[in-house]
Amino acid sequence: MKRxxxxxxxxxxxxxxxLHEIGFSGGSATLISDIGQDDYLIxxxxxxxxxYRRNTNEWISFxxxxxxxxxxxxxxxxxxxxxxxRAWRSDITVIGxxxxxxxxxxxxxxxxxxxxxWVTPYLGIGAGYHTSFISAYSPSTAGISDIQNTFxxxxxxxxxxxxxxxxxIIWELGPRYSFSDNMxxxxxxxxxSGPLSDRRGNDWYIYxxxxxTFGWGKLPCYLNTF
Length: 226
Description:
Layout: H1 2-14, E1 18-32, E2 45-55, E3 60-74, H2 81-86, E4 89-104, E5 119-138, E6 141-163, E7 167-178, H3 186-193, E8 204-218
Antiparallel strand pairs: 1-2, 1-8, 2-3, 3-4, 4-5, 5-6, 6-7, 7-8
């Protein structure tokens, strides 16, 4: 009987919220810029990321992410007659890293009785820096190549699913606001083909994908509550 209760206590001690997580993510990428289609929900590329998450408690996490992605914008796919006549296309490779603060709406700890949960929605916001490698061209104008370095603000809405508390699968929709209006090379293109936009807004890109993480390290008992 003592062995039985000892086994139960061992499981209870190991089945706590994890302190560290490491994993990877991937999915579709869509660029919102001055070139290409007007429907910003259609994927125009892909991204892959490696990530590390530090859980400060069951509610709040800090996630560090390094990402690589490619996207294409094509005026031929636009509903605007002016863009189709202009016929510019831009191919972009983006490499960047960011840190994000995440807030869980529910305390994600499936083993914490009676309030533990297996799934929670969450929100995130942070800061990052990226480099975009640009190649843009049209049928009637010489193409350009450019490199753009800028800060960006990552945001996220998603759902975290916990499996046996060590593994998580996470769906995330992540808009990234760039502090640049030149992610697709439009400032350089202005010089050769006239203004491409009225310059009233910077560029965005949106990640939509899944992450898989694996956790280790038990949260101290005094951090299991907020």
